[in-house]
Design goal:
Elements (H helix, E strand, L loop, with lengths): L6 E3 L1 H7 L2 H13 L11 E5 L2 E9 L3 E9 L11 E9 L5 E6 H20 L4 E7 L3 H13 L2 E7 L3 H13 L4 E3 L10 E4 L18 E4 L12 H6 L1 E4 L2 H7 L1 H9 L7 E3 H5 L11 E4 L4 H13 L2
Parallel strand pairs: 1-6, 7-8, 7-10, 8-9, 10-11, 11-14, 12-13, 12-14
Antiparallel strand pairs: 2-3, 3-4, 4-5, 5-6
Helix pairs in contact: 1-3, 2-3, 2-10, 3-4, 3-10
Length: about 300
Amino acid sequence: MTDTVPSWISGDEVFGRVSFEAAIRAIQRGLKAGIDPTKDFPRSVLPLNHGQLMLMPTQSSEFVGIKVLTVAPDNTALGKATIQAVYLLMDALTLSPVAFIDGAALTTLRTPATSAAVADHLAPGQVDHLVVFGSGPQAWGHVEAMRVIRSIEMVTIVDIDQGRATALATRLQASGLKSRVGSADDVRDAQLIVCATTSRTPLFNGSLVRNDSLTVAVGAYEPDTRELGSELITKAQLVVDDIGTALREAGDLIIPIAEGVIESASLIPMRDIITGVTSVDHQRPRVFKSTGMSWEDLVVASEVFRAS
């Protein structure tokens, strides 16, 4: 590549260049082609006075990338986004910057795409009811990504902020999807459940969850926080981005392991599900606990850059 001024790729351009379907297939294709999440660099989470700074570096044969992301919990009250980020993409051979990408948009695309890439294998064939906890960008993104892999009859939005929940339900209705605001007990008849919140404690009673269902949890990313209770984790087939990363960061799993109700040996890497190394257990609920990894960002960022 010749030396050029790195381009800026805005959030609108990210979604204009790469669809949810394209991002989902890129994740699946990458894992089938040999991406090994165990070799990814660990991310750094640094405490700040008003939140956290995350650094997420990784590399492939073609590119090197790093996402610099901030989490500012008090931003909601200020009318600003809680999560903000920028992604730097570099040529792998020369390490020259080739693009800066809106990191928040990239995250809104790649996290649901990763969830849907594995949900394509774990979710039941028919999804009459999708329950989504949360009403932010990740909640919306997961609905859009799940619509790629399954035909969905009804979406129920559950959020402590009824105004935001109603706004998302209305947005989904405008896109032609039957949607409403509901409660945590609606998981009782859902084939697919998505948890995309900032909650630090379990969101619903896991004993209500159907045996033929899939629950995707993406919100909690610290060892002492979780969106899922032990009653669901204990009975489910457990799939993660990467076992080592999950054991460092995923409170949804670290807490029940500490309680002695599950063992780390029960965790299955998503790569093994997507490549067919491990079979899906359709006799019990499935859980995909996503921690979000740097390789996932780079796969999607590479697609965005190539689409220029």
